[in-house]
Amino acid sequence: MMVPVRCFTCGNVVGEHWEEFKARTREADDPENPEAVLDDLGVERHCCRRMLVSHKDLVDIVAPYQ
Amino acid sequence: MEEYDVQFVDRDDREARFVVRPISPAFANGIRRAMIADVPTFSIDTVRFIENSSVMFDEQIGLRLGLIPLTTPLDDFEVGDTVTLSLDVEGPDTAYSGDLVSSDTMVEPADRNVPIIDLKEGQRLEIEADAVLDTGREHAKHQGGVAVGYRHLQRVEVVGDRPEFADDEANILRGVIEEDGDLVPTEEFDHDLTNRYPESELTVEDVPNAFVFHVETDGSVTVDDLVVRAVDTIESRANELREAVQL
Questions:
Q1: Which of A50, B8, B160, B206 has the most C-beta neighbours closer than 10 Å?
Q2: Is the Cβ pair B55, A16 closer than 8 Å?
Q3: Which of B55, B140, B218 sits opposite A63 (nearest CB)?
Q4: How far is C-alpha B154 from the chain's CA centre?
Q5: Do B22 and B4 touch, CB atoms closer than 8 A?
Q6: Are the Cβ atoms of A18 and B140 closer than 8 angstroms?
Q7: B95 at interface of A, judged by CB pairs closer than 8 A
């Protein structure tokens, strides 16, 4: 639903980078390569990278059924 | 008292790499474990919900709040101390970790952009939370260190020329190598020994009793604090043991 606060595997705080990652790779007019964005954000390990790459915000989908 | 030699390879507030020697593998692991389990940090432990009309249950929000790292000045607090934080956000808006208002300016969210919950029109989240100082042994959310580890310092020796018909393969090595007393991180030659020692046959061996620690923190404490406090806990336990077995 919301992005996990920390990486499940190593405990690094990944929620901090979510909004910037989303803005640059999915919402920008000219989307950047997710690989380059993650490198730039300093999310190095592949356990932390998958947290952001595989996430989908579901709050907008769930909200009407409240 | 034994003397230890510490050399930094990288040094930052939240991430560092350093070589310690001479220490035994058992002691290196003791330091690693102490960094993970014995250095206390603040973390939200009890949450009182005044209003929660968001799409998430109270317990889910409580979990997310607990995982947010809080800055921890270890000189001023003892294990078991609590600090109260509050949060009041009304939709349409997103509640961020930075919206948490602390009753103590020394204990604040270390990262301010962690989304807690997205609130729609008419939804509201108002809470009061108690952060408690405790160790990683008690709950993983209190761990200050993230991905703390160590590996052997290594030494590369050129033993001869590369055989004439040898395969042209990469020779990957990760970590830090020692070369004539200098520490060289393997990133410098793209982790490939054939870049640094072309056309030669190599042997790689561990430097005995020298360990390269890689320490990262979640922001609640600095790397320096984390390491020093971890070593202090080992010392205090060793002293405790000595007193306990004294005749």
A1: A50
A2: no
A3: B55
A4: 23
A5: yes
A6: no
A7: no
